[in-house]
Design a protein that fits this description.
Blueprint: H1 13-53, H2 58-62, E1 72-77, E2 85-90, E3 112-119, E4 122-129, E5 145-149, E6 160-165, E7 173-175, H3 181-185, H4 188-197
Antiparallel strand pairs: 1-2, 3-4, 5-6, 6-7
C-alpha cells in the first residue's frame, strides 16, 4: 500500500517556544525567590507560635545582639518546594529563660521561694531556700532547687541558676533544666498554631 510522509510545522511555533521558555524561566525565578523568602521568614513565624504558649522571648529563640547564644536553632532546609523541611534543635534550658524570680539570692542570706512561668500566665514554685539550718534547706543531705553561682565573669552572662544538692557531698549537685526548643515546637498546641498559619511547614 503506497504511503508517504510530510513534515508539519506551525506558523509562529518558534515564537510560541520562545514564550514557553520565558514562562519557565520566570517560574523558576519566582520559585527560587519564594523558597528564599520562606527560609528567611520561617524562624520568626515559628518563634511567634512558640511565644503564644510559652513565656519565652523571641530573642531567646532566634538570638540577638543582646542574646548572643540563642536557646536553639530554627531553619528551613531544601532547594525545591517539595523538599522543604523545618529543622530545629536546642539544649535543655534553665528556668532563667522563663521569667525566674528571684534572679539572685536576697542580700543577707534571707529565705526565698524560687518561681518561674513556663506557660504564659501560669507561675509555679520550683524551689525554696530556708535560711535556718533545717531539713530541706541548703545544708540538708538533699536540698530543694536553690540558686548557686555559675562563676560567670561578664555581666551579660547568667550569674545564678538553680541547682539541687543530691547528697552530703557539696560537689554532688544537679542543674535544674526544663524544656528545649524542639519540645516547645512539637507541643500539640504550638504545632497546630504553626500548621494553621503556614500549612507548608509541618505535615
Amino acid at each position: 500500500m503506497p504511503r508517504g510522509m510530510m513534515d508539519i510545522n506551525f506558523k509562529g511555533f518558534e515564537e510560541v517556544q520562545k514564550k514557553l521558555k520565558n514562562i519557565e524561566k520566570q517560574s523558576a525565578i519566582v520559585t527560587k525567590r519564594t523558597i528564599s523568602d520562606i527560609k528567611k521568614r520561617a524562624p520568626g513565624w515559628v518563634a511567634t507560635s512558640v511565644t503564644k504558649t510559652y513565656n519565652i522571648k523571641k530573642a531567646e529563640i532566634l538570638g540577638s545582639q543582646k542574646t548572643k547564644k540563642p536557646a536553639g536553632k530554627v531553619k528551613v532546609e531544601g532547594e525545591t518546594i517539595d523538599e522543604l523541611q523545618l529543622v530545629f534543635e536546642g539544649r535543655l534550658l534553665t528556668p532563667v529563660h522563663f521569667g525566674m524570680t528571684p534572679k539572685k539570692p536576697p542580700a543577707g542570706g534571707k529565705s526565698y521561694i524560687l518561681k518561674a512561668q513556663f506557660f504564659k500566665g501560669k507561675q509555679v514554685v520550683i524551689g525554696r531556700y530556708n535560711k535556718k539550718k533545717i531539713p530541706g534547706g541548703p545544708y540538708s543531705e538533699r536540698s530543694h532547687n536553690i540558686l548557686m553561682p555559675t562563676g560567670a565573669s561578664s555581666p551579660e552572662k547568667v550569674p545564678y541558676i538553680p541547682f539541687q544538692r543530691m547528697s552530703k557531698n557539696r560537689k554532688d549537685i544537679k542543674k535544674f533544666t526544663t524544656l528545649s526548643i524542639p519540645q516547645m515546637i512539637t507541643n500539640e498546641e504550638v504545632a497546630n498554631d504553626i500548621r494553621a498559619t503556614n500549612d507548608w511547614i509541618i505535615t
